[in-house]
Design a protein that fits this description.
With about 100 residues, the protein is an all-alpha fold. Helix content is about 90%, strand content about 0%. The protein has helices spanning about 1-35, 45-65, 70-95. Helix 1 (about 1-35) runs antiparallel to helix 2 (about 45-65). The longest helix has about 35 residues, at about 1-35. It is elongated and about 55 Å long. The termini are far apart.
């Protein structure tokens, strides 16, 4: 029985992660369109795009980690860290 409960919990967590990934994808898409329309006025959206992409990759990395796919989760978490670094650099570039 505990295995069955664990599978149900993993499915619930997985579906919540999928919903968050969908929302982050829409945020990235909307910010990308706004950046394409006027990049000079909307340059503050670049860090938001990088942050949303970092969250997406981080969530997918955790999802694959729970599925015990270590190589894929490591690659996704590493790319998430890189995108988070780009977000920090983008914010620092806007301030200075």
């Amino acid at each position: 029985m505990p295995i069955d409960k664990s599978r149900r919990t993993m499915r619930k967590v997985s579906s919540i992660m999928d919903i968050i990934n969908t929302i982050m994808g829409m945020v990235i898409l909307a910010c990308g369109v706004l950046i394409l329309i006027d990049s000079k006025d909307n340059e503050g959206l670049f860090p938001i795009v990088f942050l949303a992409a970092a969250i997406m990759n981080g969530l997918m990395g955790m999802k694959y980690y729970m599925r015990r796919e270590r190589l894929r989760s490591t690659a996704l978490l590493a790319s998430s860290a890189f995108l988070a670094l780009l977000c920090i650099l983008g914010v620092a570039g806007l301030w200075f």
